[in-house]
DNA sequence: GCTAGAAAGCTAACGCCAATAGCTAACGGC
DNA sequence: GCCGTTAGCTATTGGCGTTAGCTTTCTAGC
């Protein structure tokens, strides 16, 4: 009997595809094995159980998301960069719903590799926001606000939370432009601030 | 052997408690049964399987969330009402993490009872926003933006997405005040709008 | 107070999944 | 062409959801 020729990368790639098609919650070792025409236990030779597989899918997804954000932001600045960021973020979630969902399961605090991977998208956001006149003490709060806005919209949309007939793209525009408006005309204001800290998941 | 005295309400209440303690994903018939000192199949006399139990927990949660929002908004208007809304929303998520998570699994389109229940929190938000000078064509988009902001923040926070040392309450303030700022000083602007529609999940 | 029927909770059994142990056969280096 | 490595297998265990069918408790009505 010839071998299936699996590798960790192949398995994770197929798992990512599967979770994009059926949802991240539907990701199972049995389903992945079936796709390769292989028995479930065989996957253990390439992946550390279901937990490990989920972790790898998350890592892959968050890395790709980071790349996309970076790609969107490069060469732009100010409001344009923010628009590009918002756009790329939602586009990724549309193209890879399972991957985006995987992105939401944070990494264990001890898992340094995952920790770093999860920090990257945030770093890109931070870089873009530095183009605005935001006091250091407000930086982290602003990053968190942006992340909340994007993620909230994308997540609600993905779960079918917007049921009215109004155009969803237009709603996103309203959100994005509203956010930019605050960024531009509201640089300071709350003077009492904490000191700054370095990169990481804000 | 005396009976356990279960009722649908008791079962759902215990399930809600369990999912608040261990997470909505950890909700299982087996775990609920164990809490009552009862065999798993016994629960089928009160609840329509795991799917049904999840639905009931969701309904209960979304109803309570709606009540909380309403309670927070009543007697207030304008920015104060928005602040109260944001506050109550996050407070609910803190007190009932499992319930809040349950809230995110939307209802089936055919499930009219659930549909109505899920619409209620949105109706409260809509009522509060009517206190601002927002063009009808922009209303739904604004509601969606608010929901995105709150949910995004709460969801990221719940999943441990804010890892920097900065105070999270303060971040929430920044988000809330930013949103209010847009509401107050940016009533119109994009003139091209759709027509209005009635309540429902926006 | 007794009885009959409704219904609560039980055990048994099946299928699906994750996971571990241990076998076998295919592959690659020499 | 041989041999060690290892990919993939089968067998098995344990947990879960679900259905079927039984027994026993409770309660309504006489």
How would you describe this structure to a colleague?
Two copies of one chain form a homodimer. The first copy, chain A, has 202 residues and is mainly α. Chain A has a domain at 57-185: Tetracycline Repressor, domain 2. The first copy, chain A, contains eight helices and no strands. The first copy, chain A, has helices at residues 8-22, 29-36, 49-73, 78-95, 97-104, 112-129, 136-158, 168-185. Chain A starts with 7 loop residues before the first helix and ends in a 17-residue tail after the last helix. The interface between A and B is large, with 46 and 46 residues. The first copy, chain A, binds a DNA duplex (30 and 30 nucleotides) through residues 1-6, 28-30, 38-46, 49-50.
What's the helix and strand layout?
The structure is a homodimer of 202-residue chains.
Chain A: H1 8-22, H2 29-36, H3 49-73, H4 78-95, H5 97-104, H6 112-129, H7 136-158, H8 168-185
Helix pairs in contact in A: 1-3, 3-4, 3-5, 3-6, 4-5, 4-7, 4-8, 6-7, 7-8
The structure holds a DNA duplex (30 and 30 nucleotides).
Can you give keywords for this protein?
homodimer, 202 residues, mainly alpha, Tetracycline Repressor, domain 2, 8 helices, DNA-binding
User: Of all protein chain pairs, which has the greatest interface, and how many residues does each chain bring to it?
Assistant: A-B, 46 and 46 residues
The poorly predicted ranges of chain A are: 190-198
| Number of discrete helical segments of chain A | 8
Give the strand tally of chain A: 0
What general form of chain A does the structure show?
elongated
Averaging pLDDT over every residue of chain A, what do you get?
92
- CATH names the topology of the domain at 57-185 in chain A as Tetracycline Repressor, domain 2
Specify Rg of chain A, calculated over alpha carbons. 19 Å
What order do the helices and strands of chain A follow?
HHHHHHHH
CATH architecture of the domain at 57-185 in chain A: Orthogonal Bundle
What fraction strand of chain A?
under 5%
In which range does the helix fraction of chain A lie? 55-70%
Quaternary structure classification? homodimer
Instruction: Tell me the major beta sheet of chain A.
Output: none
Structural class of chain A: mainly alpha
Q: What separation lies between the terminal Cα atoms of chain A?
A: 51 Å
């Amino acid at each position: 009997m010839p071998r299936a020729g699996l590798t960790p990368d192949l398995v994770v790639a197929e798992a990512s595809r599967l979770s994009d098609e059926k949802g991240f919650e539907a990701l199972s070792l049995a389903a992945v094995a079936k796709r390769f025409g292989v028995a479930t236990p065989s996957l253990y030779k390439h992946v550390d159980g279901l937990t490990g597989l989920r972790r790898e899918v998350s890592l892959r997804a968050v890395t790709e998301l980071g790349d996309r954000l970076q790609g969107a932001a490069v060469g732009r600045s100010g409001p344009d960069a923010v628009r590009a960021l918002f756009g790329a973020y939602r586009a990724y979630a549309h193209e890879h719903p399972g991957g985006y969902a995987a992105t939401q399961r944070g990494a264990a605090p001890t898992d340094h590799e995952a920790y770093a991977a999860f920090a990257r998208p945030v770093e890109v956001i931070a870089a873009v926001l530095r183009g605005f006149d935001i006091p250091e003490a407000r930086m982290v709060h602003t990053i968190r606000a942006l992340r909340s806005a994007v993620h909230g919209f994308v997540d609600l949309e993905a779960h079918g939370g917007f049921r009215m007939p109004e155009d969803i793209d237009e709603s996103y525009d309203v959100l994005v432009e509203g956010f930019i408006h605050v960024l531009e005309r509201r640089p300071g204001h709350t003077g009492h601030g904490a000191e700054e800290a370095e990169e990481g998941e804000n």
